[in-house]
Amino acid sequence: MAGHPTNTLQRLRSSETIYETNAATRDPRWIKRLLLTLSLSFFVLFLVMPLIVVFTEALKKGWSTYAIALTDADTLSAIRLTLLAAVIAVPLNAVFGIAAAWAIAKFNFRGKHLLITLIDLPFSVSPVIAGLMYVLLFGSKGWFGSWLSEHDVKIIFAVPGIILATVFVTFPFVARELIPLMQAQGREEEEAALVLGASGWQTFWYITLPNIKWALIYGVVLSNARAMGEFGAVSVVSGHIRGMTNTLPLHIEVLYNEYNSAAAFAVASILALLALVTLVIKTYIEWKAHRALDMSVQTE
Amino acid sequence: MLRSTSRVLPGFPLALGITLAYLSLVVLLPLTAVFAKTTGLSLQQFWDIVSSPRVVASYRLSFGAALGAAAINAFFGMMLAWILVRYNFPGKKIVDALIDIPFALPTAVAGIALTALYAPNGWIGKILESFGIHVAFKPLGVWVALIFIGLPFVVRTVEPILEDLETELEEAAASLGAHRWQTFRFVIFPVLLPALLTGFALAFARAVGEYGSVIFIAGNIPMVSEITPLLIITKLEQYDYAGATSIAVVMLVFSFTLLLAINGLQAWTDTRTGRKR
């Protein structure tokens, strides 16, 4: 999905880009002005304005309405459920991502490409269908429905269903960040550690993990954003029980449909802030990766 | 299966075991359930469901708006990638970071924000309304929402290719007397094309299945502004499991075909740009 850190040393240097100092790659000034105007207008219109409107709508009726909306009991329970789903889904997918990347990047086996494609599958499944799948498995008429009701276990229209749906939609994030990185790093360092007498786990903790630390954090941050913001999949399995199975995005919908727009946007503003924090961390990690690359180029 | 040289490192059975078990439980088994559910239907029943007028109208809207949005994304996404790589301008780093806002912003938040903007009394809606253009609660609203969620795909697939492009190519073209436009059209664009198409296909794939950002702005009127994912939910709420699942199968088959096409496009990108995977 989002780009991997690429070698863009020139972008770190200010004033003119190397493209603008080179006569062969320099665009005429009017072209530059035209492209900047068009694309930045589009950027402001489609990406910046929706972000701004969240905050202006949230504060339309003043700070006290805003504070009341955020401290409402249903909002607080939605925050708790959102955090719970993310706290379970993200670490599960992180462990899976590390295992998958270890197998795929460090070993050769048949069907590797098929496996990578299968790991990517959840990205191409509509969130609504993701929810539907679990209803078909665990709903009252589903494959395991009668067994579950006999044993008094509720998954659909309950918290476990929400967690399952969240796990599905965030499934590939960490694996996708780690696989290409670990493939590029190869296995020489790990082999050296083993030759020097380290155990498998020692090799992993002291060699592999530090090497993949930033990509791992990157994947975790992205999957966390998706986990806390997922709407479609969670909507299908939740049943929208207020104060029970409403996550923050679902709570926004409930408030919005009750024409309580200020409260809906107040709750939305928490998630918009989360999105901004996510982008800040993401940018910081990319900046670190650029810098590491810059230094390795200089020492070459 | 294994080459002996790769046996030096430990942990292969454990790692692959975890991977396959987890993949099967979370992804493969649930997906199988969708396909298995439709086996209870005869082919005729299945066809009647997925080709009924209301369902076909929803395909037309979902696929049509998704294609239109992906086309807009291809055009402006390419332009944004160009200015981010080629030019310096104030606030460039902020623009670069905010390009990913559709990935990070929850779809429900995007949905209500876009609705507030494009509603008849909204900031943008007010202006468009005076020209007689209605966006919110109309099919046009679906298109706007899908443009929002698809933009980063094109920017982020074209950007790295543009960064890696050797300036020597353009220098050669210029020294041979090519105009800037000719250089772009015949030297740069062919290298970018596979990546542009990949970004287009990714944006399209995401847009077809999108739900959260669309339902608030769409109006959701059957036959007019009802997207396919919403129709699946509607059928599910009426306990029409067979109906919901049949439509889901059509969408899944389409998505998987597109996924294969995207894999092919990425391979093409790699050969065009001389990258190795």
How does this structure look, described?
The complex is a heterodimer of chains A (300) and B (277). With 300 residues, chain A is mainly α. Chain A has one domain: MetI-like (MetI-like fold). Chain A has 15 helices and no strands. The longest helix of chain A has 39 residues, at 261-299. The two termini of chain A are 31 Å apart. By secondary structure, chain B is mainly α. Chain B folds into 2 domains: 1-39, no CATH class; 41-273, MetI-like fold. The chains are: A mainly alpha (300), B mainly alpha (277). Chains A and B meet through helix 2, helix 3, helix 5, helix 6 and helix 7 of A and helix 1, helix 3, helix 4, helix 5 and helix 6 of B.
Biggest protein-protein contact in the assembly = A-B, 116 and 101 residues
Helix amount of chain A: over 70%
Structural class of chain A: mainly alpha
Encode the helix/strand succession of chain A as letters. HHHHHHHHHHHHHHH
Number of strands of chain A: 0
What would CATH call the architecture of chain A?
Orthogonal Bundle
| Overall structural domain count of chain B | 2
- Beta content of chain A comes to under 5%
CATH top level class name of the largest domain in chain B: Mainly Alpha
Total DSSP helices of chain A: 15
